[in-house]
Amino acid sequence: MALKTLGSTGRFGARYGFGIKKRVLKIESILKKKQKCPFCFKKSVKRISAGIWYCKSCNSKFAAKAYSPEIKV
Ligand SMILES: [Zn+2]
Fold first, then answer.
1. Mean pLDDT, 10 residues at a time, over the chain (73 residues)?
2. Is beta strand 35-36 parallel, antiparallel or unpaired with respect to 52-55?
3. Pair (26, 38) in one structural domain
4. Same domain, 39 and 60
5. How far away, in angstroms, is 9 Cα from ligand 1 center?
6. Which residue among 30, 50, 51, 72 is least enclosed by CB atoms within 10 Å?
7. From ligand 1's centre to the CA of 58, what distance in Å?
């Protein structure tokens, strides 16, 4: 049974410890939500794979951080 506080990391059960699951939860909540596009500023960016992001709105594929679409200018 998944605990409420564990969110998407509930699938790990009692393994791996709570500290690391909290970090995973933070990352996974970013991955699930659509992120803001650095070009058109619309929330339509999805992660394709680690570091590769795609914006549905302006049709741009770009490289950024593995777990967030921020890019340093
Ligand atoms: Zn865009």
1. 70 85 88 90 92 94 89 66
2. unpaired
3. no
4. yes
5. 30
6. 72
7. 4
What's the 62 CA to ligand 1 centre distance in angstroms? 10
The residue type at 65: K
CB burial of residue 47 (10 Å; 0-12, 13-18, 19+): buried
pTM of the model: 0.74
pLDDT of residue 72: 66
Nearest Cα to 60, choosing from 44, 70, 33?
44
Cα 36 to Cα 57: distance, rounded to the nearest angstrom:
10
**What range defines the domain where residue 41 resides?**
34-73
Q: Residues 6 or more apart from 26 whose CB is under 8 A from it?
A: none
